[in-house]
């Protein structure tokens, strides 16, 4: 399992240090308040400046830029007003609480996501170029169209081209998401960035490196990252309306009674300052980020890493969830899932005979059959083993001629067999020229994938889509079993991005958001383009984990609806806190207007509201969610 840490950066550590210093100075000042009032006042002011300096600087910048109604300005006016009427501890407490809330929010939001450096591991570093009947190792960027390159077993294919000599099995999972390695021979196309698994092949370049599949992935990731805009924070939105209203109300409260009704200026200015202190959104600035943090913590406890409060909030607005197939909805591990044995042998003997032919092959399909077999293969006498490129294997096992391969291998024997639809790869078997059965090797659907789809539908998310590099027959069968109605198959990374852009536009037209779930390097462009990128972190690539906004640490698709449930419950609790805090504050602002609520009563109410809001927020962590 890949480990991703949330940690305090240098700025957060500096904030914590200043908060501790401010609190210590405030305690000292409170002890000295009775005996040394002047010294106490000086210490209070120093403590205030230490805790408030960042907010005051931001408020000044807002004023200079013409933004007169930010939350920083409201905090500054309210706390300076508290200082003017001698309520030093309250002014400091407000700033300290605000800074704590800001630290919590910073921990929850990854403001500068790490670069997708691991994606570069897919980039081929060299190419064996044919020059005057000799081979030279060069940088892939110098290879030209129609140049001949050689690729050895285990090496990455440097760029796109056509095989002109040799045959092999090529792993294209990093690029296309194809679940089964592809057998290639003369005339077949290969993609740059895929891995040659077996034989030596010679390839004629059909594209320069800049136009190859792996280079396109790198470019798509960059473009998708640039196109994603951050979610606007709720507090900033709220402050755009709340701040000017309360500031104007406090100003009118201070001016109108003395100016028009002959009231005492000192009394009404005092009430106006008390009004401002009460209006300070202490309960909101602590409970709102704490609510998101609790939601992120609850998700983490349930095996889901959400990289920021904006992504947690965005889950509320999902109407479309797009899935990659291999490694996301399926295990990404091959196994024998069906044996259609039409011979006179038992299934165990049938599998043993096939395994005897496959025992010297390194192909993943062969390995899955060997793993399934329980018989002792040394009992078989094997001879005349022949690998037919693009078809399969032939061998003489004891006194029988056995052919194991695909439909092409059967047709080469003159056998006409109806090709049936399957969710896996079909391995046909012929003995002594007669068709004897077929073995299905599948990438198994994850145990909780169907439950995940059902729960998403129960949550009202009906627009579920599957994208895959696999062939359409396999994709349709998997989608049907899971209950997914929209399926796009045979896709390259750029195809996925094009489809996702179309789906994203449709969601945005309905003022909704779209999520994409994947696990491989090939999924990184789609992960970064989606409003919410969700990766499988247990088995998924490091690049996918870095590119995503949410990481499912245990590779369970059912964690996606769990995350949505946490998001919705978090929003519910936060809205409760907002309504409660504003209701109490409105009541006490009215009372302070008529001189009924004193400063300390207001402070007590404010602290009480904050405490209750925090206690309510902790319900997010305690709640049990479906899994």
Written account of the structure:
- The protein has 627 residues and is an alpha+beta fold.
- Helix content is 49%, strand content 19%.
- The protein has 21 helices and 22 strands.
- It has a seven-stranded mixed sheet with strand order 10-22-21-20-11-18-19, with helices on both faces. Strands 2-1-3-9-4-7 form a six-stranded antiparallel sheet, with no helix packed on it.
- The longest helix is centred in the C-terminal third of the chain and has 35 residues, at 559-593.
- The radius of gyration is 33 Å and the shape is elongated.
- The relative contact order is 0.12.
- Residues 1-6, 108-120 and 220-232 have low confidence and may be disordered.
Topology (elements, then pairings):
Layout: H1 10-32, H2 37-64, H3 71-84, H4 88-108, E1 127-131, E2 134-138, E3 148-151, E4 161-165, E5 168-171, H5 173-176, E6 182-184, E7 189-190, E8 195-196, E9 201-205, H6 213-227, H7 234-261, H8 265-279, H9 282-301, E10 304-306, H10 309-314, E11 318-324, E12 330-341, H11 347-358, H12 364-372, E13 382-388, E14 392-397, E15 400-405, H13 407-412, E16 425-431, E17 434-445, H14 449-458, E18 463-467, H15 472-482, E19 486-488, H16 493-509, E20 513-518, H17 524-529, E21 532-536, H18 542-547, E22 550-552, H19 559-593, H20 599-617, H21 619-622
Parallel strand pairs: 11-18, 11-20, 18-19, 20-21, 21-22
Antiparallel strand pairs: 1-2, 1-3, 3-9, 4-7, 4-9, 5-6, 5-8, 10-22, 12-17, 13-14, 14-15, 15-16, 16-17
Helix pairs in contact: 1-2, 1-4, 2-3, 2-4, 3-4, 3-7, 3-8, 4-9, 7-8, 8-19, 9-19, 9-20, 11-12, 19-20
């Amino acid at each position: 399992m890949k480990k991703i840490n949330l940690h305090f950066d240098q700025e957060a550590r500096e904030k914590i240090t200043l908060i501790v210093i401010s609190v210590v100075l405030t305690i000292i000042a409170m002890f000295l308040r009775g005996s040394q009032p002047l010294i106490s006042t000086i210490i209070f002011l120093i403590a205030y400046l230490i805790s408030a300096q960042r907010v005051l600087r931001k408020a000044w910048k807002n004023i200079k830029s013409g933004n007169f109604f930010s939350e920083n300005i409201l905090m500054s006016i309210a706390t300076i007003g508290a200082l003017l009427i001698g309520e030093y501890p309250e002014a400091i407490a407000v700033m300290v609480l605000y800074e704590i809330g800001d630290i919590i929010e910073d921990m929850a939001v990854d403001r500068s996501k790490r670069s997708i450096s691991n994606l570069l591991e897919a980039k081929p570093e060299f190419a064996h170029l044919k020059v005057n009947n000799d081979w030279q190792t060069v940088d892939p960027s110098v290879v030209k169209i129609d140049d001949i390159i050689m690729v050895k077993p285990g090496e990455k294919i440097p760029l796109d081209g056509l095989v002109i000599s040799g045959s092999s099995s090529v792993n294209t999972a990093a690029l296309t998401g194809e679940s089964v390695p592809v057998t290639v021979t003369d005339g077949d196309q290969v993609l740059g960035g895929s891995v040659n698994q077996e034989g030596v092949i010679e390839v004629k370049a059909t594209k320069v490196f800049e136009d190859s599949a792996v280079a396109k992935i790198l470019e798509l990731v960059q473009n998708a990252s640039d196109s994603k805009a951050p979610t606007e924070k709720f507090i900033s939105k709220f402050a755009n309306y709340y701040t000017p209203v309360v500031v104007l109300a406090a100003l009118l409260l201070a001016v109108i009674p003395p100016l028009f009704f002959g009231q005492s200026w000192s009394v009404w200015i005092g009430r106006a300052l008390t009004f401002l202190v009460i209006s300070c959104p202490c309960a909101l600035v602590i409970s709102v980020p704490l609510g998101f943090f609790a939601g992120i913590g609850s998700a983490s406890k349930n095996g889901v890493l959400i990289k920021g409060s904006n992504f947690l909030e965005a889950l509320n607005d999902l109407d479309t969830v797009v899935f990659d197939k291999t490694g996301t909805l399926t295990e990404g591990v091959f196994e024998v899932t069906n044996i259609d044995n039409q011979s006179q042998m038992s299934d165990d003997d049938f599998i043993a005979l096939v395994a005897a032919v496959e025992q010297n092959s390194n192909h993943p399909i062969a390995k899955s059959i060997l793993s399934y077999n329980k018989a002792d293969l040394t009992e078989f006498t094997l001879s005349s083993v022949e690998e037919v490129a693009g078809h399969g294997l032939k061998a003489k096992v004891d006194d029988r001629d056995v052919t194991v391969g695909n439909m092409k291998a059967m047709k080469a024997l003159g056998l006409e067999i109806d090709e049936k639809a399957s969710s896996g790869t079909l391995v046909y078997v012929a003995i002594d020229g007669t068709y004897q059965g077929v073995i299905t090797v599948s990438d198994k659907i994850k145990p909780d994938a169907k439950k995940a789809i059902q729960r998403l539908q129960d949550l009202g998310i009906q627009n579920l889509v599957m994208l895959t590099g696999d062939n359409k027959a396999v994709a349709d069968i998997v989608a049907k079993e899971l209950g997914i109605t929209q399926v796009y198959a045979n896709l390259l990374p750029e195809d996925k991005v094009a489809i996702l852009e179309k789906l994203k536009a449709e969601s945005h037209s309905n003022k909704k958001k779209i999520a994409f779930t994947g696990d491989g390097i090939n999924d990184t462009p789609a992960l970064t383009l989606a409003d919410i990128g969700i990766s499988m972190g247990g088995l998924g690539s490091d690049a996918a984990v870095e590119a995503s906004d949410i990481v499912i640490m245990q590779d369970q698709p059912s964690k996606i609806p769990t995350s949505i449930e946490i998001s919705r419950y978090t929003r519910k609790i936060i809205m409760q806190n907002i309504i409660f805090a504003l209701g109490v504050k409105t009541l006490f602002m009215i009372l302070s207007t008529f001189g009924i609520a004193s400063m300390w009563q207001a402070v007590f109410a404010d602290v009480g509201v904050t405490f209750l809001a925090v206690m309510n927020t902790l319900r997010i962590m305690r709640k049990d969610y479906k899994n």
